[in-house]
Design a protein that fits this description.
7 strands, about 10% strand, about 45% helix, two-stranded antiparallel ribbon, alpha/beta, about 280 residues, 5-stranded parallel beta sheet, Rossmann fold
Length: about 280
């Protein structure tokens, strides 16, 4: 609750709408806090003290600036890393070095390439005590097969974080077990296939995967502590009650072909194949 020493910003340009929503909620919280402080004083407050409370504000700044009008998400695979390292610049003087926390919202974190190669490095240059990356979408755990080119499991940072946790905790047998079950159903009609890949995530909480994601995306030499916070699946449903398409996050595909696609994607990952999981 250290609002006084926290600066809020967004990663341009796609997260700007989410940023407005975040600042609106923060201002509502701050107004509630002002009322609480005034009521607690019970009239025993100087004009200077009252003015200090009323002048409390959410510190929002445009910290990151996009230099070129290209999206790293849709860039060619072999050029994405190089592009990501040069896309953004930073505004100096917005953060008190060693004192302020820097909270930056992004629309989603799919691969994490831009965060690792560029964003976290440039944010660290302005000296925040802590960097918090907030994703307005939940963890993207499963491939899409309905028009968006997200078909390779190994590219999803949430998936890679779960795999690393399984290996670290001596649970690699789960990877092999899921692979065997996916292979066993490969020849079945799509109507009979199920999403066994959910078992990769089952041993862990969303918070554990988020912490591992932050660890994997923090560049070596970063001085600030880095934390990554994802929107929860429950929060997504609450904010979009009339839109139930959540299969990237939940693995609950609306068609049987989705279960076949995720099964094939996992098989491709284990076998080291870079081909797409659907035609």
């Amino acid at each position: 609750n250290d609002l006084e020493n926290s600066v809020f910003s967004f990663i341009p340009n796609t997260a700007e709408v989410a940023f407005f929503g975040m600042t609106e909620a923060l201002n509502k919280y701050l107004n509630t806090e002002k009322i609480r402080l005034i009521e607690e004083a019970n009239g025993d407050m100087t004009q200077e003290e009252l003015l200090k409370i009323l002048s409390m504000r959410v510190r929002s700044e445009k910290v990151a600036i996009k230099d070129i009008k290209l999206r790293t998400f849709i860039a060619e695979d072999n050029g994405r890393d190089e592009l990501a390292a040069h896309v953004y610049d930073v505004t100096y003087g917005t953060v008190n070095p060693g004192v302020d926390n820097l909270v930056v919202i992004d629309d989603s974190i799919v691969r994490g390439t831009t965060l690792r190669q560029s964003i976290i490095k440039i944010l660290d240059r302005i000296g925040p005590k802590k960097i918090v990356i907030v994703s307005s979408s939940p963890q993207i755990r499963y491939p899409d097969c309905y028009g968006i080119d997200m078909s390779r499991m190994g590219e999803f940072i949430a998936f890679r974080a779960a795999i690393e946790l399984l290996k670290e905790r001596g649970m690699s047998h789960i990877i092999n077990d899921v692979y065997d079950r996916c292979k066993a159903q490969q020849g079945l009609p799509k109507e009979e296939q199920i999403n066994h890949v959910k078992d990769i995530y089952r041993p862990f909480t969303a918070e554990e995967i988020s912490r591992k994601t932050a660890e994997m995306l923090t560049p070596k030499g970063t001085k600030a502590k880095v934390e990554i916070v994802f929107q929860s699946l429950e929060g997504l449903h609450e904010s979009c009650p009339d839109h139930t398409g959540d299969w990237y996050f939940s693995g609950d595909y609306p068609t049987d072909g989705g279960n076949r696609a995720v099964s094939n994607a996992f098989i491709n990952y284990v076998e080291g194949s870079n081909k797409r999981s659907y035609k």
